[in-house]
Amino acid sequence: GIQVEQSPPDLILQEGANSTLRCNFSDSVNNLQWFHQNPWGQLINLFYIPSGTKQNGRLSATTVATERYSLLYISSSQTTDSGVYFCAVRGSTLGRLYFGRGTQLTVWP
Amino acid sequence: DTGVSQDPRHKITKRGQNVTFRCDPISEHNRLYWYRQTLGQGPEFLTYFQNEAQLEKSRLLSDRFSAERPKGSFSTLEIQRTEQGDSAMYLCASRSPSYGYTFGSGTRLTVV
């Protein structure tokens, strides 16, 4: 299967700070998504971004498929941004998503 | 609400009992997935349906696990003779070619 590595595993910020989360993957992919898992366990889809750059408010993401990595940027972080951020990829032939182990983000007021 | 619905949200069961979970995907999505997530890990793939056909099963899906999607709409995941190691969050997702995967809120299973 495809290996997905996320860094850093843990990130602690003060409100208002910016951060960058990284996702490296081991093979070419047809799909890449970033999710935020809230304290109740629900995975919220942030970006569907197999390539290129997208922005949604304070969040933006960039995927460089040829170099097999993606970055998630969070600007002016808020306490509600706390939670686990997962990167997940789908290969070319299989239907399944492969997840990384996530980045645990804690934002303090 | 047009999201993915899962029922129940929580289930506590005694070891050895059978449990069944239900997932209702987004109606226009013909692809449906089941994942399992344990504490501190990312979700792991269990199985995948396209319409009513089960196209892929993980090695994690032992013979105690069975999933169905009888009419290509909702799906059920049954675990027979539950074990403590089955305690986890069970997540269902459906997929759109344009927007990717949408996950439900999950069913948290605790086997005591």
Comma- or semicolon-separated keywords:
heterodimer, A: 109 residues, mainly beta, six-stranded mixed beta sheet, five-stranded antiparallel beta sheet, 0% helix, 58% strand, B: 112 residues, seven-stranded mixed beta sheet, four-stranded antiparallel beta sheet, globular
In short:
With 109 residues, chain A is mainly beta. Chain A has strands at residues 4-7, 10-14, 19-25, 31-37, 43-48, 52-56, 59-64, 69-74, 83-90, 97-99, 103-108. Chain A contains no helices and 11 strands.
Outline the structure in words.
The complex is a heterodimer of chains A (109) and B (112). Chain A has strands spanning 4-7, 10-14, 19-25, 31-37, 43-48, 52-56, 59-64, 69-74, 83-90, 97-99, 103-108. Chain A is mainly β. In chain A, the strands form 2 sheets. In chain A, strands 2, 4, 5, 9, 10 and 11 form a 6-stranded mixed sheet that branches. In chain A, a hairpin with a 2-residue loop joins strand 6 and strand 7. Chain A is globular. The model of chain A has no long low-confidence stretch (mean pLDDT 94). By secondary structure, chain B is mainly β. Chain B is built from no helices and 11 strands. In chain B, the strands form 2 sheets. In chain B, strands 2, 4, 5, 6, 9, 10 and 11 form a 7-stranded mixed sheet that branches. Chain B has a 4-stranded antiparallel sheet with strand order 1-3-8-7, with no helix packed on it. Chain B starts with a strand and ends with a strand. The interface between A and B is medium-sized, with 21 and 29 residues.
